[in-house]
Structures are given as structure tokens and as C-alpha cells.
Amino acid sequence: MELYNGRPEDTSGRKEKEIKVYDILDSLHIPYIRADHEAVMTMEACEEIDKALGMEICKNLFLCNRKKTSYYLLLMPGNKALKTKELSQQIPTTRLSFASGEDMETYLNVTPGSATVMGLIFDPENKVQLLVDEELLEQEEFGCHPCVNTSSIKMKTADVFDKFLKEIHHDYIMVKLSDGNEQE
After folding, report:
1. How far apart are CA 169 and CA 120, in angstroms?
2. N or C: which terminus of the chain carries fewer CB neighbours within 10 A?
3. Which residues form the YbaK/aminoacyl-tRNA synthetase-associated domain (predicted)?
């Protein structure tokens, strides 16, 4: 798998939402490494991409409360399993479940399999609350999709949380998720 510095030279055939991600990162002078690949839908499918980028891409889950009045994008290490009860108590909210693909498209302009923090650029009204596992904030580098699951990008974690989120007027709540070995 070939790695590239920055945006693709030829953007024909690329989706507008992907190009918008590169436009924002470039305008903020955030350097990033890009890998183009076949569509990936699972963390297991990302293993080859992880090896190429020299890091693990985080798991991105789009969640909502029971009444579907609050939406959350959870970023967590790929090796952790989500325990909704544990997370719900930290926010606090009613028990969480996975939001629909339709809602994901409405709020983040992404389809299932391509959820990403970059999708928050399409949420100017801050309807989606970003939740981040503390382990991700401790890592030097951060990997995600640029709103499509046929490319992955790697950049400095500080650039995502200090520059990118400030630019798009989003904040995050840090959560502490267990490693998944305990019973819920």
C-alpha cells in the first residue's frame, strides 16, 4: 500500500466531502499522510492499513439516546469493546444504542463504515457530541477516514484536538472506557 503526503494531485473521481476534509486540513496547515485502499467496513479490515500507516486507526461509533434526541460520535481504541452502560453513566444519558445509517448521513454526511471525526465539519449546529476515550488523547498520532472509507489519513493527535476541532467549533468530552474484559 502506497503512502502519500497530503491531498491527491488528481481529485477527479473523489467525493466532494473528502476534498472538503483536505481543504480544511490544508487551510490549517495540518500535515497528514494518506493511504488509498479498497473500501473497509470493519476494524479487522483496517489491519493492513494500520500496518502501512504504522499505527492503529481508532474505532468510530455513531450513537444516540433512546429517544433519538441526542447524538454522539465515540472515538475509541479499536481493541476495546463498547459497554453502553459504562459510557451512558459517564455522559450522563439514557442507555445508548447505535444510530441509524440515515441519521449518520444527516448529521455527519458519512455512510456506515466511514464514520469519522472529520464528519463533524458537516455538523455546524453541533447536534453531535464528540466523545473521546482518554487513551486516544495520549497517543502522538491519530488515524481516521476523510469522510470516505476508501482512504485513511494519519496526523498528529494535537492537530486534530487543538486545531481542527477549534476551527469547526466542536468540543469533546473525554471518557474512560474499560478494556472490555470485564462483564457488563
Report:
1. 9
2. C
3. 37-161
Q: CATH number, domain at 90?
A: 3.90.960.10
DSSP H stretches of helix in the chain: 16-27, 47-53, 84-90, 101-108, 134-138, 157-158, 165-167
Q: Is residue 182 part of a domain?
A: no
**Does 152 map to a domain?**
yes
Q: Is the pLDDT of residue 183 over 90?
A: no
HSE at residue 19, side-chain half, CA atoms within 13 A, is: 8
Contacts of 69 (CB under 8 A, 6+ apart): none
How confident is the model over 135-156, as pLDDT tens digits?
999 999 999 999 999 999 999 9
CA distance readout (Å), 160 to 56, 81, 180: 16, 23, 26
In a domain, 59, yes or no: yes
Residue 180 lies inside a defined structural domain of this protein:
no
Enclosing domain of residue 98: 3-7+14-175
Structural domains counted in the chain:
1
| DSSP category for residue 42 | S
Closest residue by Cα to residue 156 from 28, 17, 66: 28
